[in-house]
Predict the 3D structure of the following.
Amino acid sequence: MKANGWAEEAWEKVHEKVLRTSGRIGARFPHASVDGTYVLEAPHWWTAGFWPGLLWLLYRDSDSRDERYKEIAEACEKQLDDVLTGYDRLDHDIGFMWTLTSVARFKLLGEEESRRRALLAASVLSGRFNVKGNYIRAWNPWSEGQRNEGWAIIDCMMNLPLLYWASETTGDPRFKHVATAHADTVLAHFVRTDGSVNHIVIFDPDTGEFEGVNGGQGFAPNSAWSRGTAWAIYGMALSYRYTGKAAYLDAAKRAAHFFLANLPEDAVPHWDFRLPPGIERYRDTSAGACAACGLLEIAAAVQGEEAGMYREAGERILRSLYENYGAWDNPAEEGLLLHGTSHYPERRNVDVPLIYGDYYFVEGLSRLRGNSDTFW
């Protein structure tokens, strides 16, 4: 098959499958597929942006823009209004939710109502910034009495583009100041010397002093959760795109080299790169898809042979996902990619399709097909 010919083939299969699955899913919010059917979450759930974001990619890149994709994505965005104005359920994942809905629609269609939504979301996200510790607070308490106001997580690197975009579209640097301060904290406390990454870092919320780390969705505090590494690769590369700060690109490369050095033969990662004997080595296709997009972002930031190396690595992962982990010809499975792992320590959504894995796979295909623009 000619270079990237497989990507064209994959794009067509994605398009055909999503045409079918969108009939049932509609303007709702899939998260993980169980027994072949995507479980639908409430609009406030952190993954709410990925389905409409995927639809916007298909709408943007298809030869004949399918209005069904547009209508569903717009209806999803409107349902998030109550979440945004309700405030209580908002956390660091605001970027995931409104970048792939409102920012996407504004970039594609120039709709001012989407711009205003995204700016309001960016304002709320920047309001979670702790000025003593220079970090964006992660979650709200999961249970009554829980104290986690000092927690920050690596996932938030992928929420920073909403803030960078807000500064660009308004001319107000405050949003970017928050984003870069958080990214600098990630450089100092999350990305290790070898390129592996902490998931959760804990600070004293009053003084900002570093207190420790938590394994979170990785196996242990000092292990190497693969999706966390992917968040760092892509998130740091995006921060470099918006700021030109060399330290961000260097961190993205360091995490990328760690990720690539620890891949199994088929280039699709296990859910953690440092697992002791006796622990099930499930794959996480979502980590692979996200990391591939990050590798392609790095490739766009460098030149010559180095660019070719990162692009080839990203393409290798995406091609393996397509050829070895796809559910293209299985009408009983709504997910695009099999074998994602969401949260192994809590045994939640293990070895199943995940909507964010599907999203990043489609974004990666879009990049390989020549569209260098992203919603991020």
